[in-house]
Amino acid sequence: MEVLDWGRSIAVYFAQNPVEGVGAGLTLLGIWLNVRQSLWGWVLGLGAIGCYLYVFFQARLYADVLLNLAFLVTSLYGLWHWKFGAPTQGELPVTRLRAGQWGLVLSLGAAGALGLGATLSHFTAAQQPWFNAATASYSLVAQWLLARKVRENWLLWAGVDVAAAGVYHATGLYATALLYALLAGLAVNGWRAWGRANG
After folding, report:
1. What is the pTM of this model?
2. Is 100 exposed, middle or buried (0-12, 13-18, 19+ CB in 10 A)?
3. CA geometry: angle at 155 spanning 104 and 70, to 5°?
4. Tens digit of each residue's pLDDT (9 = 90 or more) over 91-100
5. In whole angstroms, what is the distance from residue 184 CA to residue 180 CA?
6. CA 86 from centroid of its chain's CA atoms
7. In the Cβ-directed half-sphere of 173, how many Cα atoms lie within 13 Å?
8. SS3 at position 95
9. b vs e for 142-159, b when ≥16 Cβ sit within 10 Å of the residue's Cβ?
């Protein structure tokens, strides 16, 4: 009986929040395709971005609104780079960060989190501005690495996804919280799959 009630509750939630449900579905399928290095992952991701611009604006998660606008640009770039960025006519290869680049990547994420967090906390009524700014900033760094087909994007995504799941759960975006928990698992799978592709 509890399983039926739980299933009914999920159906009611999605009926009341259809844009979030569609966005979650498109995101999950798009990332699954990215793990498989398919260009269609970027295409579905663009649809998900449109959904989440609406959802995050309604939830007053303004860092995520800005992040999705940045995702729009990086997704278009990623689609182009994966299609045309290979040095030869073949598929764009998976690359790796060099040891010294990790410090730069983490510093960029931290600087973005501090700047965005200060702006959101002083000038908006954003929910959880500092935490939301940190997940948004590191998401942007991870997205850029994904667009460049750098394997370590999946490590950043795994950390961001776990943290973001908590933010979204706390703000009542339960489908999105569940989505990000699932995305953390896909990120681990992406790390492994791209490692095999990288040899």
Report:
1. 0.85
2. exposed
3. 65
4. 889 999 988 8
5. 6
6. 24
7. 27
8. strand
9. bbbbbbbbbbbbbbbbbe
